[in-house]
Amino acid sequence: MVFYIIPVFFLAMNPMLYDSATIFRGLLLTLFSSIYFLFNKIKFRKNLFVIVILGSLIGWYILGFFSNSQNYADFFLGGYSRGFGLLALIALFLVILIAENNVSTQDKILFNSLYITLVLAIIYGFFQSINIDFFQYVMNFNGIRLTLANPNFASAFLGIIGIVPIAFYFNNKSNKKYLHLLTFFVTVYLIFQTASSQGLVILLFSIILFFSFKIFPLIKKIRRSILLLSSTTLSAIVCLVFFSYSKIITKYLEESFQVSARLEHWLVALKVFESYPLFGVGIDNLGKYSGEFVSSEFVKRTQGYTYPDKSHNTLLDHYANGGFIAGTLWLIFIIYISIWAIKIQASSTSGIEKWKVHLISSIWYAYLLQTFINTDHLMIALIGFIAAGCILGVKNRLKAPV
After folding, report:
1. In the chain, what are the domain boundaries?
2. DSSP 8-class letter at 398
3. Cβ contacts of residue 196 below 8 Å, gap of 6+?
4. Which whole-number Å values give the CA distances from 344 to 21, 201, 217, 397, in the listed order?
5. Around Cβ 55, how many Cβ atoms within 10 Å?
6. Which residue of 37, 132, 327, 396 has the fewest C-beta atoms within 10 A of its own C-beta?
């Protein structure tokens, strides 16, 4: 039943709070994970490596808190209405262990919860698309934002879980399978309604991964020479198309993804890291230091935006906020999960259907892609960290070692 936190979290908006979209979710997530650990047993030994890595990351941010004399509220709750303070970070790490502990017995509930969340998003998105909303937001945007308060987040969120109906469609033999296909096309329509292209890129990426995982056994049987020739040919075609239409492609990327602005954000984070390499500037605290590293071109391009609080890249955020140690610990964590997300595709598992393993890994990589091109969000992070925990759960229950 623990995975029903996903649709509950999606609906967790409190209009009585000034920041109705993040503070309430952060406190709810902390309460949920704490209560679970009080009343349930968790096996720590099998996840010792991840526990040490993430525990060290938390410990380093605590040291950074004293080093930077950071504000208590920003440290525990997060700054600039992002909600990624220490409490949320600890809660997300605990979610990994909760998911690992339950995926083998509650996998059906997990995917039903994701589907329910998608249906709720579709219903809410439909109302927003016809200018009917249940909340009033301070910021005005052109596209729908669901309950994530920003169209970019909404687009990425739909892109990450939009793979779910596709997976159900190709693993359902009844006539009801076409309802899954309909759900998928409605999801794509809503991504267009966000007026953000991020979701389309993420969704396409996860679909390619899902089907790649499905044909993984076949790929292993193909000779390496044929694979090398095929990959080389495909790479040559992609390069040829890019160089032939480079101006059109770069113009589209700039208009759709604001590439120059993102690169400026990344550069600011790198400059902050260069100036504060040991402890960084404190967890979720980039906005208080970034102004001194922003260029005049950045200010002009962003129309007076002088204090970016995120780098639009979670890895760079950790390097800027927590210094070299924090950034490297996060890098080790995502590499470890990503490696196992691939390795579990080739192994026999106990109690979990193979297509569900493909789906879990696809969701993880979709979340990971999102963290490299956009600011993270608690709703999106919850799904990503649950996927990470599920990957560990599958890994720990392999019938044969990989």
Report:
1. 223-255
2. B
3. 143, 151, 152, 154, 155, 156
4. 35, 25, 12, 10
5. 14
6. 132
Q: What element of type H or E holds 101?
A: helix 86-129
Distance, in Å, from the CA atom of 224 to the CA atom of 150, rounded to the nearest integer, reads 45
Task: Assess contact for 401 and 356: CB atoms under 8 A.
Answer: no
Nearest CA to 33 among 386, 391, 350?
Answer: 386
Q: For 165-204, b where at least 16 C-beta lie within 10 A, e where not — what string?
A: bbbbbebeeeeeeeebeebbebbbebbebbebbbbbbbbe
Residue partners of 398: CB distance under 8 A and separation at least 6 = 344, 347, 348, 349, 350
Q: Report the pLDDT value the prediction gives residue 138, as an integer from 0 to 100.
A: 59
- CA-to-CA dists, residue 305 to 83, 223, 273, 301, angstroms: 21, 53, 20, 8
Choice among 70-79, 85-94, 312-321 with the minimum mean pLDDT: 70-79
Q: What is the pLDDT of residues 258-302, one digit of tens each?
A: 677 788 888 899 999 999 999 999 999 998 888 788 777 766 666
- Rounded Cα–Cα distance for residues 279 and 321 (Å): 7
Name the helix (H) or strand (E) containing 263: helix 259-275
Structure tokens of 320?
A: 């800027």
The Cα 158–Cα 200 span in angstroms is: 9
For residue 138, give the DSSP letter. Answer: S
| Cβ neighbours for 192, distance < 8 A, ≥ 6 positions apart | 200
Cβ–Cβ under 8 Å, residues 378 and 84: yes
Report helix, strand or coil for 281: coil
Tell me what pLDDT residue 255 has: 60
